[in-house]
Amino acid sequence: MAVPAAIRRVVVARDEYRCAYCQTSEDNCGLAMHLDHIVPEVAGGGNEIENLCLACFNCNVSKGAQQNAVDPETGENAALFHPVQQRWADHFGWSRDGTHIIGRTPVGRATVSALKMNNPTVVFARRRWVDAGWHPPT
Ligand SMILES: [Zn+2]
User: Fold this and answer.
1) Paired residues of 55 in beta bridges
2) At residue 130, what are phi and psi to the nearest 5 degrees?
3) What is the Å distance from ligand 1's center to 107 Cα?
4) Does the global pTM surpass 0.85?
5) Which terminal residue of the chain has fewer beta carbons within 10 Å of its beta carbon, N or C?
6) What tens digit of pLDDT does each residue of 101-128 get?
7) DSSP label at 47?
């Protein structure tokens, strides 16, 4: 079901025009973020503000209807990051050069892997954003 425009405006303001997963900003990529259902609609997730976040095309499409993924460090299944209920900095950090997202917890590592948050295309773009002084976000 389509998300009402008033709810979209609230989510956009809360997430500050950034992907709630990989932190890519609309300003840097030049594309409007998608609205992601954190609990997917096929799993019963609705259009409540608490179940919506902004997501870039890559994170949104890579996530699909997944709610869990394998933590590549342990091989165990882990829940994906929940951008409304969890804090990004508790589960992720930036590599020293600012181009890669480092998963710090099982949730973080599983999410980085499942959402392909360090795919070569975005890493290339992040390198340019770092050079320009636009990244990583503070
Ligand atoms: Zn993203």
Assistant:
1) 34
2) -65, -45
3) 16
4) yes
5) C
6) 999 999 999 999 999 999 999 999 999 9
7) S
